[in-house]
Design a protein that fits this description.
This protein is mostly helical and about 325 residues long. The chain contains 16 helices and no strands.
Length: about 325
């Protein structure tokens, strides 16, 4: 037992995960509205696969089953939000295996993983099945508006390569581009859970209000994306609303075990994510930079913690004397 005082609270891992799941419900509903019933099918398959893989791993390794904490459910939902609606079901199952078994369970389970499972699984799927992972389709509702004078190069810089693909479903030429309002409401192509910004914003604010996540990481991440977009000559509003910026800032970068502990460390962490994201979007050919940025910053989180750790108040370190 540790010395007193002890802090007691009714919160538990299960309650936290259920709260996060509830915060993602608006995003799931928006994906079904814009992309049809198959979006719900993908989400259900992803969740069931994550739960099943975690249960089987605990059985095979003779450990206490951990599916009761509902962390696998959250991973499954976020993973589904990071794939297009056209992704074959067996690929989402494979992604669930990578997220749960390879990234989470093999490193000791919840709280021991060095990287965000959903972000890592998305990267693995993107590298392994690039064609399927970049086959975005136009939404069923909310037709895109044309914007005169926009070139593919400009669109890539302000919205990412994913928006170029989604805006040209037929002709292969840049003819249509969603307005900022359509971007905010979700009437544009992309992965299931990254299109409807208002749903993600409502879910993120709900988590901040409930005290589940800190505001520091989302604000520093989205704020740095906005600033670096300006510096790189991109439209900052499109930069924040496009790709996986919103879902990454609120639901992936805030993972307890893979982000820094102190507020100063969280701010550095968020700024680093924003900077790397805009570097990839502006100068690389990858379809989206958010997942890569989160993974890279996850790797250096221990170093951020060591540099920003709070020193004990009034501590005196004695010097060794001869």
């Amino acid at each position: 037992m540790t010395p007193s005082p002890h802090i007691k609270d009714s919160i538990s891992t299960k309650k936290i995960m259920l709260t996060v799941s509830a915060a993602l419900v608006p995003t799931i509903l928006a994906s079904v509205y814009y992309f049809g019933f198959r979006a719900l099918v993908l989400t259900v398959v992803s969740v069931l696969s994550c739960v099943l893989f975690e249960y089987l791993f605990t059985i095979l390794t003779k450990r206490e089953p951990t599916i009761g904490d509902c962390s696998a459910v959250v991973t499954g939902i976020i993973l589904a939000c990071n794939v297009p609606v056209t992704l074959p079901l067996w690929m989402i199952v494979f992604g669930a295996f990578i997220a749960i078994v390879v990234v989470k369970c093999l490193f000791g389970g919840i709280g021991c993983n060095f990287a965000n499972p959903a972000a890592t699984a998305r990267i693995f799927l993107l590298v392994s099945f690039a064609g399927h992972m970049t086959s975005w389709v136009a939404p069923l509702r909310g037709a895109m508006e044309s914007i005169a004078g926009a070139t593919p190069g400009q669109i890539i810089r302000v919205m990412g390569v994913d928006m170029v693909a989604s805006a040209t479903p037929l002709s292969g030429k840049m003819e249509q581009l969603p307005s900022l309002l359509q971007m905010f409401l979700g009437a544009r192509g992309g992965s299931l859970g990254e299109t409807c910004a208002i749903a993600l914003l409502l879910g993120g604010l709900f988590l901040i209000y409930k005290g589940i996540i800190s505001w520091v990481i989302p604000v520093s991440t989205l704020g740095s994306i906005f600033v670096f977009a300006l510096l790189f000559g991109a439209n900052p509003f499109y930069a924040v609303l496009s790709g996986g910026a919103m879902i990454g800032a609120f639901f992936m970068a805030t993972d307890y075990s893979t982000c820094p502990v102190t507020d100063k460390g969280k701010a550095i962490f968020g700024i680093g994510i924003g900077f790397i994201t805009m570097i990839i979007r502006s100068f690389c050919s990858y379809p989206e930079g958010m997942s890569y940025a989160i993974l890279l910053m996850n790797i250096i989180t221990p170093h951020i913690d060591s540099l920003t750790i709070t020193k004990p108040f009034g501590a005196v370190f004695a010097q060794k004397t001869e």
